[in-house]
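Example record used in the benchmark description.
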Amino acid sequence: MTHTDIFNKKKVTGWIMIFFFIAFTSCIEDKGNYDYWEINTVDIAGISATPYYVGLGESFKITPVLTFSLGEEHDAFQYEWHLMQSTGTIKQSAGILSDQKNLDIIIGGLINAAGTYRIMYCITNLTTGVRYDYLFSVVVQDRMLVGYIVLCEKESNTFDIDLISLYRDTLTQYHNVLDVYDSALPRTDRKPIDLICYGDYLSPSPTASGRKYAIWILTDKGTDRVRVENMEYIPEFNLSSRLMALNPKYRPADGNLVADRIFSVSNHVSSYGKDYLYANGNYFFHNWVMVSWFYNLPVNSMSVNEAPYKAAPYIFMTSGGAILFDETHNRFEAHLAGSNELNASSSTLLHTTRLTNGTYFDWQDPDYRLVYMDNRTISLGYAIVNNTRTNRYEFLQMTVGEIVVNNYLSTSASQSGKAEFPVGTNLDNIKFYAYHSTLPYLYLASEDRVYRINTSAMTTLDDITAQVLPAGHKISKMKNSAIRFPRTNQMVIASYNPAGQTGENGQLAFYEVEDGTGNLILAKHPASPTVDGYQIDMKWTGFGKIINVDYKNPQ
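Model output (structure tokens):
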């Protein structure tokens, strides 16, 4: 029997059996012997007549109050909670949410979007076939639309997405939101690499404000996007199918370009949308301000006729362009992507400039080996290089911006500082770097140690592991929340316990930086308690191994 006819046949069948039983017995000659059969009826109470309010991904429980006229033990009963179809007047089931007497579910799966739903509680007396129903409503709110989105490695070569949602100024942790939304995004037999949320002209879904937004998930098998509202996966919107302009020379044979990283400083309120995709040592550029340039020729080349150099996997980018590092020749290059730098010619689309003059250091120092490069803010960047000539590590600061030259708006790269790390500093084991956006504190981390250095003095590398890392944990991600995050200047540190339960042994914490010392202090949310006293530590556990953290806000 299908869900479609369950509510039309079951109930009728029971009453037909009773009718024929009465009709049959009434036709028998009355000999003064009467056998009466009393039905074990059920009264349902304890379920609200007004709608329940619950959020996607939240626990939803109902314990009904049931009264059996002959006692529950008198007969065998079947319990079902049916999600009813939202259209039409005929009561038809869209699926069973639970087959238990009491409802205890996580809102998700069949209920994977905000809206009002009807649920039918059905109790069937298996002896008589009589069914008793109670119909009620549930209003589901999407409390997961905005918040900190976390890409987690679960079991070997599997991943999921967790979320710390921001809803009415409260933070709530949700696990496995791809399951909550019943997303079809492939997540087995693939290793997670990165996650990024930002304004994207090619995003499959516009927001209410009219802007576009994207959630990209990078794995070793592909580069995919999902809808921001419900994590819906649409295969034709993955990266390989949208690279309409990618030069055939650089398109993989199977058409599936696997990105190692995607870099963007734009967000949902930006007036521009530019990003750089890094794959196989090449950078591909995407812009949708002046013209919709899709990823085309590698920008790590001085011209369309010159072979691309091998670019380092780090970049510093602004709205005006980016600084790359040429690992083939050990020098910095600038890709200029300002307002007047792009036109309809694919040759000028490259528009990569060789940097020569420098105030603090030589852009083309052949002894430089790039260790790391990143944004400090949306307009300031920094790089760490190993100077093989002096056997010292150097800390370089730079910017890319638009300037007016001869009444013409152009883009240029400039330097803003250079400092040397203390003699004897060895950064071979450092995997993560994060630079505070206003204070002179640079944080460095290996898997099991966290350090801080004051870039104004550059005298000592202080070990601050005890401030942030639980015993036995290893660092899996460290970053500064200067870009796209609602509260800037926080240090975001993710760690995991290798001896813990795989998929549940990760921790995420946010730290404020103490002015004057650079010490990391566990952040609170909100920064000051609310009127009713709400304030929590910004630290959560129960994640898998965290690969990256970003902030989604498509509103």
